[in-house]
Amino acid sequence: MEIAQAILVLQGFCGTNLTVTLARIEAALHGASVDTCGASLTECRADTTALTAAGLVKRLAGEINVVIHALGILLCLPHILEPGEIIEDVSLGAGNTGRPFDLETNMRIAEFKFIRWQGGPEAIRQNSLFKDFYCMAEHECSKRRFLYVLGTDYALKFLNGGRALSSVLSRNVKLHDEFTEKFGQQYKTVRDYYVPRKHLVELKDVSPFIPELVGAGLD
């Protein structure tokens, strides 16, 4: 795909205002199910062609990471929603835009991390992954909890590893204070906190059913 063609494809998905477009898609998906969300994706042009285009031009657009994140979530929906499952809320923009999680249905809460792990220290990515795991593990609800990632090897290596929690929490004052107030000095390493709670959050690799995300994933 040529860059010019990729830009046209992305314009078809983004419209004239990405924030407005994502808000419209979010509203349209409210109440959708595994039987109906496919039509919604077709209508908003959320397909693998758009995701491939996003990967090609990500260096050219400041918001391309937001596009990849939004497309990744949208394309995951037909693969993860179960019969009878209804979308209650979805957050497609950067962060959670005021919502607690990327996706909430009548059956699950979920966060999506479409990053390509390089195998190095990657402290910032690890910090973000821990925050998402912690927020879902500690959330009071009876719904299933999912953390969707590109490959589970590096994520699990970190979560089962011995990195000090004081280091992981050092750059997020709010999370540090909340964690310390709740647990004090009970846990010293990521593994200490993760192991007793690993059954609470299911870590799932999305790359088998959306392989295009591997090439378009966030650096």
Q: Can you tell me about this structure?
A:
The protein is an alpha/beta fold and 219 residues long. It is built from 11 helices and 5 strands. The protein folds into 2 domains: 1-86, no CATH class; 107-219, no CATH class. The chain has a 5-stranded mixed sheet with strand order 1-2-3-4-5. β3 (108-113), α6 (123-138) and β4 (144-149) form a beta-alpha-beta unit. The protein starts with a helix and ends with a helix.
Secondary-structure map:
Elements: H1 3-14, H2 18-29, H3 37-43, H4 48-57, H5 64-80, E1 87-90, E2 103-105, E3 108-113, H6 123-138, E4 144-149, H7 153-159, H8 165-168, H9 173-183, H10 190-194, E5 201-205, H11 212-216
Parallel strand pairs: 3-4, 4-5
Antiparallel strand pairs: 1-2, 2-3
**Structural class, from helix and strand content?**
alpha/beta
Radius of gyration from CA coordinates: 18 Å
Q: What portion of residues is helical?
A: 40-55%
Read across the widest sheet, the strand sequence of neighbours is 1-2-3-4-5
